[in-house]
């Protein structure tokens, strides 16, 4: 249990910092800023860039999904597990657009922690509070120990 608490403590040291040196190269590209993290909650902010947009110059659904999946993955790591957990599904409802330059927050909450499966809910909101997307995801325990990956 001590090592699991260390995972959360490592993340707490990153509050207010850019998340651009994490193990996820795709997540690094997003250049989010960690705002909050607890054992069952995480919030990261992002600024929409032109590279994140579709031809209509609004946030691409795939990039929004990447934001959500990456935030849930970090939150799940901080929630603690001896084993790597991976997404087995990600259900996203896109509810409104986001334009270049807008600041977004992705918040994810651990709804259920099980011995093999963790269920998360997440939302993307604009600074105005308007909902951009909502999602749910299940993470399943693999047979790969985090210590084997260097964590």
Question: Taking all residues together, what is the mean pLDDT?
Answer: 94
- Characterize the overall form: globular
What would CATH call the architecture?
Roll
Please work out how many helical segments DSSP would assign: 3
What is the CA-based Rg, rounded?
15 Å
Structural class of the helices, strands and pairings?
Answer: alpha+beta
Strand content: 35-45%
| Major beta sheet, strand line-up | 1-2-4-5-6-3
- Total separate domains: 1
Count of β-strands: 6
Helix content: 10-25%
**Secondary-structure element sequence?**
HHEEHEEEE
Spans of at least 5 consecutive residues whose pLDDT stays below 50 are none
First and last CA, distance: 14 Å
GO molecular function: fatty acyl-CoA hydrolase activity
Family: Belongs to the thioesterase PaaI family.
Domain Thioesterase: 58-132
InterPro entries: ACOT13, HotDog_dom_sf, PAAI_dom, Thioestr_dom
SSE blueprint and pairings:
Elements: H1 2-12, H2 25-30, E1 33-38, E2 41-47, H3 61-79, E3 83-94, E4 103-113, E5 117-126, E6 131-145
Antiparallel strand pairs: 1-2, 2-4, 3-6, 4-5, 5-6
Describe this structure in words.
The chain is an alpha+beta fold and 151 residues long. The protein has one domain (2-149): Thiol Ester Dehydrase, Chain A (Roll), CATH 3.10.129. 24% of the residues lie in helices and 40% in strands. It is built from three helices and six strands, in the order ααββαββββ. A six-stranded antiparallel beta sheet has the order 1-2-4-5-6-3. The two termini are 14 Å apart. The model has no long low-confidence stretch (mean pLDDT 94).
